[in-house]
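PROTEIN DESIGN WORKSHEET
SECTION A - STRUCTURE
LENGTH: 207
TOKENS:
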């Protein structure tokens, strides 16, 4: 019987290939940690070419950045009222933490490492500003809104406070990882952020 000729069938549609790269990265991070990720080992494990990788991602850091920039934090609707400044900020950050937890405890423990440059870049700043759409930029906007409403003292520096809160969040996540996921991140986060904000809160609006 004559062999059929023509174009070979596609092994995956473009979006399927992108999702396969992401899913493979999640599994590799769970097994070996974020520091072990390379373009080559992701492609080999996914059964895709390096050319396919570069069709979807600029480099390794761009791939890892997917897990923190998947959605803009400007679009989140927060349920906690602005009057509860600490609770509102914690709700905001729990959106990010819950996203990691949905990928599994092992992923979260392995993703939060000192060698993860993508995470460091996302949770940093450029020229004294946070990148638009990041959780830190939204946090600063929330603090500024609270300040405009007279909930925070006029001398409070919303930008510095946002950096401090980000540091608190990272500390809670690392502590959670050290305790094998036994710690209640949300409870700890609310307690520490509330304590931090205490000295900046006005007892009465427009005081």
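SECTION B - SEQUENCE
RESIDUE ASSIGNMENT:
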């Amino acid at each position: 019987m004559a062999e059929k000729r023509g174009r070979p069938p596609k092994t995956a549609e473009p979006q399927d290939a992108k999702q396969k790269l992401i899913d493979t990265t999640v599994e590799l991070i769970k097994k070996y940690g974020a520091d072990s990720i390379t373009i080559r080992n992701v492609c080999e494990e996914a059964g895709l070419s390096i050319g396919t990788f570069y069709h979807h991602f600029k480099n390794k850091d761009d791939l890892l950045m997917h897990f923190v920039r998947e959605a803009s934090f400007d679009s989140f609707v927060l349920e906690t009222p602005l009057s509860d400044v600490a609770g509102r900020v914690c709700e905001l950050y729990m959106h990010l933490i819950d996203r990691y937890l949905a990928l599994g405890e092992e992923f979260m423990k392995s993703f939060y490492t000192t060698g993860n440059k993508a995470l460091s870049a996302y949770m940093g700043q450029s020229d004294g500003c946070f990148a638009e759409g990041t959780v830190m930029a939204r946090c600063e906007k929330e603090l500024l809104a609270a300040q405009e409403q007279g909930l925070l003292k006029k001398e409070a520096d919303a930008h510095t406070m946002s950096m401090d809160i980000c540091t608190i969040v990272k500390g809670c996540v690392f502590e959670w990882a050290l305790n094998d996921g036994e710690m209640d991140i949300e409870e700890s986060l609310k307690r520490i952020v509330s304590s931090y904000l205490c000295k900046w809160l006005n007892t009465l609006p427009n005081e």
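SECTION C - NOTES
Confidence is low (pLDDT under 50) at residues 1-11.
The CA atoms of residues 61 and 118 lie 5 Å apart.
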